[in-house]
Write a structure and sequence with these properties.
single chain, mainly alpha, two-stranded antiparallel sheet, 11 helices
């Protein structure tokens, strides 16, 4: 008898997980107009590329380029690796536009916990990050909705900069990769919560995600100037936000499907998340200051 109940309970949980997973994936199709488009993702991608164009132009000017061919040559010469002779010029431009610089943050420029997420060093840096964001962001924004996606992206991006601020105080840091790791973390938790909706209990899907995460983190051990502390900070905070805010649909008493993790239900937790991020930044600053 116990075995029958156990099998029934397992089948019931699997069915609920499958319904929640499929509903979350297809929910965006019921939307109309702009609501159906991943406009936050595309807005961030376009805005970030625009900011890079401005900083790349200023960098080229700082290296002595004044004509259009010279500006293009200066940018392309540093497209993959920053030349040693141009490193100081690039650092000065990025700092002027809001890069993470501990000494300036300690002087009260706290916006530098946010602005580095939208700055990039060169063509390769911005191209790889924005390609990853476009591919993952469009999917995840459809899954969680515009506001939750923006919350996850910004909070994990800020936490990644806080991690860099504390663990790599000597480094000038820029880039969206910490926030992108945050999106990966959030999606990984969504898969974990809905593992029963996947074949073999989601084990192959989770192993693949772990492989992707470890593979990307390992790049930081072989490629210079990669801030793995920021990546880990973004990943861990993304996992936490994924547990709190990625969709989880259940049947209401009227048999309607309701997302238990929607912001309309979890707005107090969202406010606490924002406040907690602020407190984390204050704590990090206090320890560095001490």
């Amino acid at each position: 008898m116990d075995k029958i109940y156990t099998e029934h309970d397992t089948a019931s949980r699997t069915l609920r997980s499958q319904i929640s997973y499929q509903t979350a994936l297809s929910h965006y199709r019921s939307l109309r107009g702009l609501s159906r488009i991943s406009w936050v993702t595309w807005g961030v991608v376009i805005g970030t590329i625009t900011v890079w164009c401005v900083t790349a132009y200023q960098f080229a000017l700082a290296t002595g380029a004044h004509t259009l061919p010279d500006i293009i040559a200066a940018v392309m010469n540093n497209a993959i690796n920053i030349q040693d002779k141009d490193n100081d010029a690039l650092s000065n431009v990025l700092i002027a536009y809001g890069a993470k610089d501990n000494s300036l943050i300690m002087q009260g420029q706290y916006w530098r916990f946010v602005t580095p997420v939208f700055l990039h060093a060169n063509v390769l840096h911005v191209a790889l990050n924005m390609l990853n964001l476009a591919v993952l962001g469009v999917f995840l924004e459809r899954l969680v909705g515009h506001i939750r996606f923006l919350l996850i992206y910004l909070i994990t991006g800020i936490v990644s900069i806080i991690a860099s601020f504390y663990f790599m105080p000597q480094e000038i840091s820029v880039g969206a990769s910490g926030a992108i790791f945050g999106l990966v973390g959030a999606y990984s938790i969504f898969v974990l919560i809905h593992r029963r909706a996947f074949r073999k209990g989601g084990v192959p899907a989770l192993i693949w995600l772990i492989f992707v995460i470890v593979g990307n983190l390992s790049i930081g051990f072989f490629v210079p100037n990669v801030d793995n502390y920021a990546h880990v900070g973004g990943l861990l905070s993304g996992c936490l936000l994924g547990w709190w805010f990625t969709p989880l649909f259940t049947l209401a008493p009227d048999n309607a499907l309701v997302d238990k993790h929607s912001l309309s239900r979890r707005w107090p937790l969202a406010l606490l998340t924002i406040a907690g991020t602020l407190i984390l930044a204050i704590i990090a600053r206090s320890f560095i200051g001490g």
